[in-house]
Here is the input.
Amino acid sequence: MIDATQPADHGSAPDDHEDPGAAFAARGWRVQSRRVLRRCRELLGDDPRFLPIVFRLTPLGVSRTITDHTEIVIEGFPRSGNTFATFAIQEAEQRDVDVASHAHVPAQVKVAVRRHKPTLVVVREPIGCLTSLLTAAPHVRFDAAINEYTHHHREILPLRRDFVIGTFEKTTTDFASVTDAVNAQFGTSFARFVQTPENVDRVFARIDEHYQHVYGAKASERVVPRPSDARRAEKEWLTEQLMSSRYADAMARARAVYDELVDGA
Here is the structure.
């Protein structure tokens, strides 16, 4: 099976002297297959009944299924801070917290709310989120990525009072305050992550180890969700594309739903 979320085998990131848009040219049947599978996953991802199928299309070495033992659900659109939040709470607790995460579909949030699980939804403004997504998955079409972002957040908008929102900025720079909000809303007592350089380095080390385990040789600088200078040229180019007049209306809709989610938190 071709995983719609797996990184494409596109080699190393270009340096500043190469064409930053080269990785995004359409390439053959594998690219088309990934696009089709990603679209199927999106269409199925609104309905909790189809979560088992979605999980089959998203092989990843983390627990996604929400069970009676799940202590917290951490969800969000891809590249929004899901991974940092998941490993930061593990680091703060210094134990294996039973976290359900990385389903990356609205249905997971709906199940979490229905089962009254402590739920953290991480959200990231569209430009930063989409440039990171497209860098990691250049087989995704720009317009499809924007529309998927907007649709995902619109689906969970009606439930916004039933979960805690952690913005990407808060999640990655002040996760203690996000944890405080979770504890306050759900009556939990998760330990606060102390945002020292040493603790952040330990979280990134956990992330690197995890991605090496899951992706092996494909766990390149393009894929691992942490800051990287190697991706700078592509992200600048992607920002330019997404802010162009071609995508102005779609990006405005994406920004509007982001603002509504954050402002209503």
In short: The mean pLDDT is 86. The CA atoms of residues 125 and 258 lie 6 Å apart.
